[in-house]
């Protein structure tokens, strides 16, 4: 009986307070989150930013495949090395403590030298020996593992950020927003991609690159120094990978395996755009970045890369040569 009285008293107290609680709930405005249109615009902005960064890193990978038909599995490590080299110059206690801008420029130069060294020291001797593409592809896997673990030993497993441009307030773009850092990275990425397009279309070395990619034997017979063109492509690929690594580390975070995580999206971008086409790599990477970010509106963030790859499969079922690729006869 004692517990029944306690229960009845508590129930009566709740019934007495219920009108007041209801009145208070009706009088107060419940805070609302951003609308679907605002979230969609924000995801689109983030997707464009992500896509142009992927494009910078994947253009060099596409040019390498276009000139010597090699799938460079170690390209992701070039991205990581660029980001960690800039980190060493900018943040590390053992480094000189440079500002991020000169550190990024030095990382780009280092990436170009690394690409040239790998071409002269590994790939050119292997081609001179007549090594098959499958064997060279296996060598790229071994090189990837070697470089990744060298970075792991030197850099460590702890994620870190650059010293500058870390925490910033956003700039309003209607219902969405973007930080000055992310806006600058996006605009610089677009300018770099436009510069690559001008390089390929308006310069002699760009014309030579396109000629070698179209028909290596005919280009060599026409007097083009193919070895010099291939060396230039490797150095350009290394520089772009390093720059993309710095941008990716700036907007995300610097880790020892960041390039490896980005490698699958690079491959997806160049395959979607068309193998061997620099412009196809740009378009395909942009599509991959936008789809990956827009998918988070409906699905968990952990699945964003999966939906981007699903779009890749669907497009290839309709257009096997990719968006800007050319259909070729086999045999």
TrEMBL record:
<feature type="transmembrane region" description="Helical">
    <location>
        <begin position="130"/>
        <end position="155"/>
    </location>
</feature>
<keyword id="KW-0813">Transport</keyword>
<dbReference type="InterPro" id="IPR052157">
    <property type="entry name" value="BCAA_transport_permease"/>
</dbReference>
<feature type="transmembrane region" description="Helical">
    <location>
        <begin position="51"/>
        <end position="71"/>
    </location>
</feature>
<protein>
    <submittedName>
        <fullName>Branched-chain amino acid ABC transporter permease</fullName>
    </submittedName>
</protein>
<dbReference type="Pfam" id="PF02653">
    <property type="entry name" value="BPD_transp_2"/>
</dbReference>
<feature type="transmembrane region" description="Helical">
    <location>
        <begin position="78"/>
        <end position="94"/>
    </location>
</feature>
<keyword id="KW-1003">Cell membrane</keyword>
<keyword id="KW-0472">Membrane</keyword>
<keyword id="KW-0812">Transmembrane</keyword>
<dbReference type="InterPro" id="IPR001851">
    <property type="entry name" value="ABC_transp_permease"/>
</dbReference>
<feature type="transmembrane region" description="Helical">
    <location>
        <begin position="303"/>
        <end position="322"/>
    </location>
</feature>
<keyword id="KW-0997">Cell inner membrane</keyword>
<comment type="similarity">
    <text>Belongs to the binding-protein-dependent transport system permease family. LivHM subfamily.</text>
</comment>
<feature type="transmembrane region" description="Helical">
    <location>
        <begin position="100"/>
        <end position="118"/>
    </location>
</feature>
<keyword id="KW-1133">Transmembrane helix</keyword>
<feature type="transmembrane region" description="Helical">
    <location>
        <begin position="229"/>
        <end position="251"/>
    </location>
</feature>
<feature type="transmembrane region" description="Helical">
    <location>
        <begin position="183"/>
        <end position="200"/>
    </location>
</feature>
<feature type="signal peptide">
    <location>
        <begin position="1"/>
        <end position="25"/>
    </location>
</feature>
<keyword id="KW-0029">Amino-acid transport</keyword>
<keyword id="KW-0732">Signal</keyword>
<feature type="transmembrane region" description="Helical">
    <location>
        <begin position="263"/>
        <end position="291"/>
    </location>
</feature>
